[in-house]
Amino acid sequence: MIDQHIEFSITDRIARIVLARPTARNAMNAALITQFAEACANAAAGPSLIAIVISAQGDWFSAGGDLKDFLANREHIHSHVHAMADVLHAAILDLRRAPAPVIAAVGVVAAGAGFTLVCACDLVVATQSARFVSAYTSSGLTPDGGGTFFLPRIVGHRAAFDIMATNPVLTAAEAKACGIVSRIAEDGALDSEVDKLLTNLAAQPEGAVAALKALFRRGEDGLAAQLDAERDSIAARAATPSALARIEAFLKPKAR
Fold first, then answer.
1. CATH code, domain carrying 100
2. How far apart are CA 163 and CA 166, in angstroms?
3. Interval 196-207: pLDDT, tens
4. Is the pLDDT of residue 214 over 60?
5. Number of domains, the chain
6. Residue ranges of the alpha helices (H) in the chain?
């Protein structure tokens, strides 16, 4: 029996996708990514939705790709990572093509693919304690999930390259200042802040927000090709001795 790592529902024209692997910091293994992609496809096909909300159980929005899963497939890591990126990227394309705006609700930490997923959303609500970090290059990898497409468009080319090359941990306030975060909620008030945003979106005339998103999408003709380039790059990097060594070192128990 496959573990359920995603909770999906549509109620009152709101689609909700919840990352539900809290004991693993919502790290994205093959099962989670597959279930996430299925939920995104269902949400994108939902009729007349007000919004799609992506949130998570536990303290972590997502730690990104499951590095333990990478090493468990070490003998065929290139094809494994390549296939996982393909599925994740199908989900990203569905979210971008969906007429409804996509909202990321970030409680504490979004790292790696969790960070790039945030960048792919239309709106981001984060708590004051939230933290954001790219983290890919520190593991010898390159971004996937559309990070190299979306982040430069949000913060500018030089700032994006700095963030992804040097991996600073951004506070919610810093992420809002550079445009990654839309709204900041007090700790413990994330759901209520998201609800305020949903109420605002629901109050707009029927179809207006969907039409606005469609206009924003007109500048994303190169997204699919960039996702393919990211997929090829992260799969190739994952198979290098240097990246494997960094991943192994990261997963070793830390001395106390």
1. 3.90.226.10
2. 6
3. 999 999 999 999
4. yes
5. 1
6. 30-44, 67-72, 77-97, 113-120, 147-155, 157-166, 172-177, 190-202, 208-217, 223-238, 241-251
